[in-house]
Amino acid sequence: MADLVLHVGRYTAQGLRPNNEDRFVVDLVHNIFLVADGMGGQERGEQASGMAADIIPRVIQNRLAAQDQASDAVRKALAEANEAIINAGKTQPEGRRMGTTAVLALRQADQMYVAGLGDSRAYLIRDGKVEQLTVDHSVAQALVASGTLTPEEARHSPYQHVLHKFLGCAGLNEGAEVRPLTPQGGDRLLLASDGLTNHITEEDLCQGSKQFANPQDWVEHLVSLALERGSRDNVTCVVVAFETA
Question: What pLDDT score does 188 carry?
């Protein structure tokens, strides 16, 4: 990937929420990109997503410096963030869980390493096709995987936004799957919170990647579009564009 240049767009909007519990990281020095969507309400959600945005890049850098493989560095960073958020949540009142989703991408050599926990998503837009790289860790999606629900039923299920995996989850035994990806010129890698992905279609992503050459223009358009379509959540999006040098 040495002959590819990265251009990045990033944007977040509070929307109709009283505060913004989303956080994002765009680190072009260490090539780390992240979107986190806090859970637990106001200060708790903000604290959890803020911890993810602080801990994950720092641990990845430390583990890479210690010669860990990139995928192992990502997994360890997510595990450390999970443990730290669990410990921070112990001071919260009973029943008021504190957590955050996280979706991230790390560039290392000629590869990107993508991982997610929760329902924030990563998409690859390549050659007019859109591929979701992450899996939603919702109860509804788990029921789809087991054959109990159809994808259409899951979209309208009350369990669509009930997560069984996230950062701050005491039962996070398996951790996150890390997906390697070899980028190509013209690729767009999109990371976004569900405030965006619940209101944006794959057709929007396909058309927008052609319409907007500048990734900053595109992320601002996508966030505005999600709000226009009725998103009541915080809306956050990061787009990494890979261009031939």
Answer: 98
Q: Among 17, 11, 12, 10, which Cα is nearest to 233's? A: 17
State the total domains in the chain. Answer: 1
Which H helix or E strand runs over 108? strand 99-108
Query: pLDDT tens digits, residue range 28-81?
Result: 999 999 999 998 664 688 999 999 999 999 999 999 999 999 999 999 999 999
Alpha-carbon Rg for the chain, nearest whole angstrom, is: 17
Strand-strand pairing, 129-132 and 188-192:
unpaired
pLDDT category of residue 159 using cuts at 50, 70 and 90: low
SS3 labels along 173-185: CCCCCEEEECCCC
Q: For residue range 17-30, list pLDDT tens digits in order.
A: 889 999 999 999 99
List, in order, residues 6 or more apart from 142 with CB less than 8 Å away: 164
Say how far apart CA 9 and CA 215 lie, in whole Å: 5
Helices (H) and strands (E) in the chain, counts: 7, 10
Domain residue limits at 209? 4-244
How large is the angle between the packed helices 70-89 and 42-65, nearest 10 degrees? 150
Which residues on neighbouring strands pair with residue 103, listed in sequence order?
35, 116
pTM of model > 0.70: yes
Question: Which CATH number covers residue 179?
Answer: 3.60.40.10
